Amino acid sequence: MNASTEPTLGTTDPDSVQGRVLRVVATSRRLPTESVTSDSTFEQLGIDSLDRINLLFDLENEFDISIDDEEAKTITTIPQMVTGIQQLLQSKESGLASI
């Protein structure tokens, strides 16, 4: 497959995924995009358990994935979120159901 003709291949690119995660987090929390950085923690961003649920729904919709509830409980930083989403997207592209 040629990456230039396949729109979903870019979704696992780290920069693309990271940028989209940062944008979704900022939008979900109604924060200025510049305040959400690639090394932010959920605590720094004021994300509590209810916010986390809403954020997960937003990310699932953004990337058309399903994030396991138990796995999601261990995610507390933007880098962990980006890594988890990259793994889910790679699994999805290779035909695996979940990580």
* CATH level 1 name: Mainly Alpha
- Rg, nearest Å: 13 Å
Main pleated sheet: none
| CATH level-3 fold name | Non-ribosomal Peptide Synthetase Peptidyl Carrier Protein, Chain A
| Fraction of residues in β-strands | under 5%
Uncertain spans, ≥5 residues at pLDDT below 50? 1-12
CATH homologous superfamily classification: ACP-like
Number of domains: 1
Structural class category: mainly alpha
Quaternary structure classification: single chain
Separate helix tally: 4
Give a verbal description of the structure:
The chain is mainly alpha-helical. It has one domain: ACP-like (Non-ribosomal Peptide Synthetase Peptidyl Carrier Protein, Chain A). The protein has helices at 14-29, 49-63, 69-72, 78-94. α1 (14-29) packs across α4.
Topology (elements, then pairings):
Layout: H1 14-29, H2 49-63, H3 69-72, H4 78-94
Helix pairs in contact: 1-2, 1-4
